Amino acid sequence: MNIHHKKKYLSFLKFKRDFQKYGLEKARSYELILHWLNNRLSRNQFLVLSGILVGCTAGLAGVLLKSLVHSIHHFITTKVHFEYQILFYVVFPFLGIVLTTSIVLTIFKGQDRKGIGVILYEIAQNSSIVSSVKMYSQIVQSAVTVGLGGSAGLESPIAVTGAAIGSNFAQTYRLSYKERTLLLAAGATAGIASAFNAPIAGIMFAFEILLTGVVFTDFIPLVVAAVCGSLLSRILLQEDVLFRFYTREAFNYRNVPYYLILGIVTGLYARYFVIISQKVEHFIKTLKMSRLRKAMFGGAVLSLLCVLFPPLFGEGYETVKAFTNGDVHRIIENSLFRYFEIGNFTIIIFLILVLLLKVFATSFTIFSGGNGGNFAPSLFAGGTVGYLFAIICQQIGFPEVPVTNLVLVGMAGAMSGVMYAPLTAIFLIAESSFGYDLFIPLMIVSIISYLIAKWFSPISPELKSLADQGKIFTNKHDKNILFSLRTEDFIDQYSQAINENSPITELFELVKNGNKNIFAVVNNDKTLRGILTLDDIRPYLFTNDEVSVSVSQIMKTPPAVIHPEDQPLAILQTFDDTGVWNLPVVDTQNRFIGFISKSTILMSYRQILKGYSE
Length: 614
Prior knowledge:
614 residues, Clc chloride channel, CBS-domain, 3-stranded antiparallel beta sheet, 3-stranded mixed beta sheet
């Protein structure tokens, strides 16, 4: 055997030992290769490779979903006569929500959590571990809902799908929490980039919404994932499926007053959108119906709205493109308003009603049992606000109104106010319209809308329910780091306890043979009765007189107790309020479980903080 063949043989033996070590004898061939690369490449090199693979996979998922839904919409809205379209608007939206709910109940065992909040919950509460089911469940559910006319967007389901792909990739190759979170964000980034063919907007989405307050120096995987998702979208999707706008006017500084007013209008509309959405969600939750009946009720409401106002059917991007192309008459001609004389007044009334009802259509779609997100609805509403504002200005007597530009920046304004994501909105519209010279009006409108939204409520509606439950935090970097900490990891399982009726001499033996400086006092049922510290025992330790007191006579009530379901941040607050460093943990029956030390939580926090800064 020559030297060359000997080296190859030795390399093969080491390759085999590595996979036996990790128990991967039954792994697929590509998994074996990637495990081998993970052991041979540097950390940064493997993360870049991971970003490429996750980005391509998430991008393909996005392309598949967009193509499927577009094909269904194209058949319904362009290949069918108007009278049959009305029949389809009656049947399909209703069927979409009912079928989605049935699929969730039968196939996915009732697990229907959806929206961007799902990703943030997994980062905060589940160490960025997303169920593998979400790699395909969101595609199935949203394809049925939106494909059959649900008035929601595909971008949130695509983002959740991409996040699940990134998380499961990281789990397969045993990556750390930090790397798992990074690839989770990379998957979501690729999903958004493929949905809009806008890689920079995808990256902004990750940093602005998913990784709020979390410092990542390894941003290259996000970039390559976004590029891969966007490229696949550009290569595989047909031109009419892409989120693209080719008609616009050059920016003129004299039009700044229009943009200032539009920023205020979109901000107020975004607030209306949020309030109505929350009220509809509350209304549906209070209905005393089964989930299937709620789906039937919501589907019936949605079908009625789509019959009256066809632009509410599906995502609505075709309607926005019609605004930018000056083809609004075609929209009205496909509705019951075709029987009225189509003039400017009719158009204004029609668009006002569409704007007012869009949030109802979206909310009933999502909260009654469908699957979708607020990306597309906010963009649709913003484009409609922009066009409506433009034609009202023209009717007042301002002929030189930049109609197309107002439609585009209106989309950014509404999305910024609804999603609390101004940077994502700015780059999304700039990339989608090739309108980089529109950055100034985009920034004006988006920031004004965002500030108005923040003035009404400092927290994004996507996160409000999670924040109210104490499951997620939205501002400080320290709180975001505590996302990865779990209370059960800090409980001292070797804590010492003594019965309340025991003599103090038995307590002396615990002190003598143990290494603890705090003890729990319990009864025969292990119920916590009090605590003792070395300071409480010290007066009795060094006396020559016989001590006849019992443990119950010298024990004291703990200043507070901790429960296993309490969050680390709340526990630290309790430590600060009481001024102590050790507290007992009890279950719902007040049975003693162990002690938690403040120093243990702080040490774990410092270790994670150090990991983020490396």
